[in-house]
Amino acid sequence: MVRHMLxxxxxxxxxxxxxxxxxxxxxxxxxxxxxQNEPPATELVVARWHFGTNGLIGHxxxxxxxxxxxxxxxxxxxxxxxxxxxxxxxxxxxLGSEEVFLYPFAYVSEPGExxxxxxEVVHLREFVERGGFVLVDDFDGPQQWNQFESQxxxxxxxxxxxxxxxxxxxxxxxxxxxxxxxMSEHVPGGMITYYGLFSDDGTLAMLAGHNSxxxxxxxxxxxxxxxxxxxxxxxxxxxxxVVYSLTx
Length: 248
Hints:
Number of strands: 9
Shape: globular
Largest sheet: 7 strands, mixed
Number of helices: 5
Radius of gyration: 17 Å
Structural class: alpha/beta
Order of helices and strands: EEEHEEHEHEEEHH
């Protein structure tokens, strides 16, 4: 189902600065405090999910690269598409809360330590069934894969995660991704595999990059030590996921 039609593309430029609207500290970890963001009333607000964890990486993986990766991806979207989005169009959302259904595009970080509550399992299933889209990022190796897959299986016991073909339309939804393996030598885990979970009508509802870490490239692309080519592909991939979700 087409929700919006998006066009346009410009070369990646220096990211603009804009003010953040902070609220109360958000419960995160024993070591760090993560602050909630109050997004503007834009067409797109990206929800970064906070979910139950098993402590594999200190209960803080869900917030990795926050908020700079969120802000930088939104800035790229604002510059390269006509979607109504601002740099500050992101929000931390509890997967176990009803708020999850207010934001149809969700980002998940470090699902290798995901241990969902029963309510979170129900909301994950319902989110997808209502037409939501989930971009899953930053997990590597067999242990993290197995943990993530086990949690998805709880929500969708009869629906497998399948490797996506190189010709799937998500890769060209707005800006073609030139090389799906361009990031592989710069992240742990070896070869990157992108998996998809599909809704009943065959629409891609979840895109999960195993052995990939898009948020590192979104966060640090301006660092001279971060190679530009894989960073470009990371921004293109994130943008394509958003555009696909808004047009299907």
